[in-house]
Amino acid sequence: MDERTARELRGLARVLVRSGYADHAAITAALTEAVREDAPSMDPATLVPLLIGEAVIDLNADAAGWPATTGPDRLDAVLEELERRGLVVVRYTSDHHDARQALEAAGDPKGLVFFTDTDVWHAVDFGMLELKLWHPDTANVAPGEPLLEDVLSLLNGNDLPAVFDEGRIEVTLDWQRRVTL
């Protein structure tokens, strides 16, 4: 396996583990598929546990220096409050179709907030999570609308700097989610 492929596989293991949403089986499945595709000469049964183990060791070393309450902890509190207010919240979905189905299945939703797995991976690497906010009819919110202003106020009031840009809410946070695998 060349160095570039090794680096990419380690990077994938890193974001999958640090996301805090994927369980061991899902991480194993995703990495096994990546090894088979990108490093077919390698044995996934041998390489995947090493990749996961390395990512967990690195995460645990970093977590020792994290504050008691992290950005993802504050985000979880905001998302729970939005749910109490009647919004449907979909975390770490593979695409907007799943989020839309959750919205359509809800009884009298006030709106939808969601983010995808790749949004979380971006937050892991770059400290910014993109949230999508829709009205109950699946229309995107627009600047100045009360629903958007309420969500932005809640995020900013919980030490999660957030701005609306190009149809999405950009939340600045260090992705420090404690993980148990």
UniProtKB/TrEMBL annotation:
Residues 4-178 form the DUF6891 domain. This is DUF6891 domain-containing protein. The lineage of its organism: Bacteria, Bacillati, Actinomycetota, Actinomycetes, Propionibacteriales.
